[in-house]
Amino acid sequence: MKVLFLGSVFATENEKEILENSKVAVEYSANNFQKKMIDGFKEVAEDFFILSAPGIASFPKGYRKMQFKGFSVAQSEYEYVKFNNIWGIRNRSRAKNVKKALRPFIAATDEEKLIVVYSAHTPFLQAATYAKRKDSRIKICLVIPDLPQYMNLSANQSLLYRLGKRYDINKFNKLLPNVDSFMFLTEEMNKKLNKENKPYIVVEGIVGENDFQLETNKEERVGKYIVYTGKLYERFGVNNLVRAFERLQEENYRLILCGAGDSEEFIKKEASKDERIWFKGQVTADEAKQWIKQADVLVNPRPNNEEYTKYSFPSKNIEYLASGKPVVAYMLDGMKQIYRDFLYIPKDGSIYALAQSLLSAIEQSNEYTNKDFMKYCKEKLTAKYIAKEIIRIGKS
Fold first, then answer.
1. Which label site among 131, 257, 267, 363 has the fewest CB atoms less than 10 Å from its CB?
2. pLDDT digits (tens, 9 = 90+) for 127-155
3. Which residues of the chain have pLDDT under 70?
């Protein structure tokens, strides 16, 4: 089967340029997820191609460039699609140019062809649908890491953005019947989107070979490190994490926060009062991995208090657990119950309960092991296993 991966992935060589031109948080989590999927397909697909309209924010508020014409640093992994990056225009431009880039795949004479579309991004699904209409042998598998209405959970959303998003979701829903199979992160996603009961799999995350058992680097260490990497949104519980940490009295504890978002000013204010709080801002994926490597405890403070948690499985939970470190996180409605055995879960949504879970995890950090999770993810969450499953349902 000829397989084409259509997504927003960008190469490691281009991260620095994206970071320098971005005015908002870079989607490193989504990028890492796609890279791991691609690694799996490279192992199991005999004929495999990668097409990407990179995951940069729109001009002018999110990114400094009006046109995406490629990056200054060359790379050999992905074929990048050029597009107009101006907000309100860029989706049409991306759809148009991805369609053009798909023509060689459409023209291929293979009997079995599969387009794996990453994310509920309407231009990608438009382009894949166009290809399918040109060649009925083409099938589409749609990978849904987030529902479209929950892809931006920032508190700073304009009325124009909300109206545009509503129009985009309606268009996306009209395209869904063209999808032949799905990969979801939660079972609730399937109930929400797969109205025709088409073939699907539920996979909450992907573990790469380099994710397992990152040894703690204790050189030049000062005390115990509690680390969070990701979007710094109040809605994601980041402010509560800072408040919970402030309840801990030990002078040798450090809270390291990497990322960008609407909680930045609050974090900076609290860091100015408590030197134990280290705000690192937006960092590269490699830098984030280094902080994970140095952590004694990893924490994801996203609370289970909104509708979207039924349709969410934070990929950082998988990355954190695979590191072999204690992980403090809440059980979200979309998470499988088996994760109760893997996490340090606060008893309730209070700041006090979060602080107590942090303390419990720190106390166990020296002798912590999580062999049950390692066994589980090596059976169900490896990139190779997931790629095989996508191809299997793609053929059905």
1. 363
2. 999 999 999 999 999 999 988 776 555 55
3. 150-157, 161, 212-221, 368-369
Contact of 115 with 105, CB cutoff 8 Å: yes
pLDDT tens column, 204-232: 999 877 776 556 555 566 789 999 999 99
Residue written as token pair 């309100």 = 88
CA-based nearest residue to 292, from 349, 238, 231, 211: 211
Bridge partners for 50 per DSSP: 5
Contact 354, 244 (CB under 8 A): yes
Give the per-residue pLDDT at 213: 57
pLDDT at res. 168: 87
Spatial distance between the Cα atoms of 302 and 240, rounded to a whole number of angstroms: 9
